[in-house]
Amino acid sequence: MKTKIITLFMVLFSVWSYGQNTSQHYVNGVTFFENKKYNDAISEFTKAIQENSKFKEAYFKRGACYELLEDYKKAIVDFTAVINIDPTNTNAYYNRGLAYKEIHKINKAILDFTKTIELHPTHKYAYYNRALIELSIDDYDTACLDLSKAASLGVENADEIMKYSCKK
Hints:
This protein is an all-alpha fold. The protein has helices at 2-34, 38-51, 56-68, 72-85, 90-102, 106-119, 124-136, 140-152, 156-165. It is built from nine helices and no strands.
């Protein structure tokens, strides 16, 4: 009986400490992130992910670090990991769309902004960024619809761009 209690305690402690370490690495990463020490944050988020491969928040924050460091391909990998864990994560689709936009993968960016809008129909910046891409490929009709929606949701620049790009 004593052996079973000790074994149970050891299992519970290892599960508890496993969670504690993951959380601590994540908290450390967030602190580094907030202090704009992105490489240090990446290191901590990586440790959290190594301890829990389904830690979507750590993938997301690490992806955000990569995006801020302009390492868009690594950001895309992390945002894709979030989407694989949680296919309804609006922020992962949106940020992956931004990263695709930066590396000129226009079709993939449009798909991600469209998915963002599907999941969150009032995501004003998804409409806005999709419109900017549409303008860049001379799809003015669609861009103007997206700019109009973005403006109605409160994106100030959308009205200004519409004045110069859209027919009344």
